[in-house]
């Protein structure tokens, strides 16, 4: 393999090609604004995932309009009055009741929010990391002086023109829904947050959200979901304060209440509902909530500066010098959020006495990724210790790039910037299959991500996923019937661009939030000139 550097080429343009020994490269462009479009497109994907609102063609694009989903219009049961899952409805074939007899005698209005992935479910723990990264990319832009590119009118969303930065308006759509998922006062688990709302059973592909005939239920609350709300509500409170003080106050009050509720119920875990015959939703089970606790304490400390939350940070197993490692070669995700918490502590200004040590730990983690990156023929910093690629490997890789980008912000050392640029190339085609995993970007881009409404492969009247949608990527387990034929292949070859290949080719909000975070960072680099040394 040969690597070609064009560092000395500065003439902007598109359609460039390289020729060598009779072979011609794919066309490419040179310019200082190459990532600007992806910053927008990857964020507008979230508008297309909205529940409870009509999707307008003039915002998402021709052919992408659809009726509002789950708004109590037949055949929908809708999300305006959703009951708790009846007792016994989460019982396995072996007779095990996964919810131990839990149910509730109430119903909640849980309209709004984002559909999580290619199905109709809405999950707090995956919504949490996605919201955090949208809020985080804006907060980073404020620190680096690039927030103007993310202001009001920067995205194609219905709220444009209201004076609030559009990325915050998009995040608010999910935050408002998460606030609706809280167990009401007077109930046995009051203050905790329901883990998810979903169909009783899976619906087939294709299926538009407005056509979903399945009854909807609230699933049992969980400590993880409650801590997710505490974390993102606290983060949101400081970012919304200049734009909507009342909403900011509401968020901070909700964050404090959720944190206290999680303290009262420290280990109420979500079970693996995949063991049910037809679950109708992903489990998002997580047996370790100490990292979620670290994250919630982090955001509450950053927003309040209160000693209570700093003390909880210092007592957490994922603390500096603790028994659990915050950073993993496999990257962070919805169920491993300690690294994200560490990035926030390192980059958001605070009076934490240990902040310099936290920042040093991020740089150390980035150095390990740079070292691992140097061992890879395609130059990407994703090297799982098992040698096997995980579900959502592209999202995990992108989150490793966020660690490198944070090190660049902390140190001003451009070798971390270069590591991000080299690593992101994998997602856009420098990989074993030579494909771009982002719809609309690259010569051979993935277009059939697993989705019930972006299902053009199954129904030509439906569109492909919108421009800027990232696929989950290679998964060594090949867990779905379509990719199963690839089991045993080299890790990067465990992929197929097929709408039925949910294990390798699904779209999800947390992978797109990872892409959006990286795209915003790259767009903020401008023409890539050397960075001044960071201070602090």
TrEMBL record:
Keywords: Carbohydrate metabolism, Cellulose degradation, Glycosidase, Hydrolase, Polysaccharide degradation
EC numbers, comma separated: 3.2.1.4
Catalytic activities: Endohydrolysis of (1->4)-beta-D-glucosidic linkages in cellulose, lichenin and cereal beta-D-glucans
Pfam families xref list: Glyco_hydro_9
Alphabetical GO biological process terms: cellulose catabolic process
Similarity comment: Belongs to the glycosyl hydrolase 9 (cellulase E) family.
Coiled-coil intervals: none
Region (Disordered): 458-477
InterPro entries: 6-hairpin_glycosidase_sf, 6hp_glycosidase-like_sf, Glyco_hydro_9, Glyco_hydro_9_Asp/Glu_AS
Protein name: Endoglucanase
Top-tier EC class: hydrolase
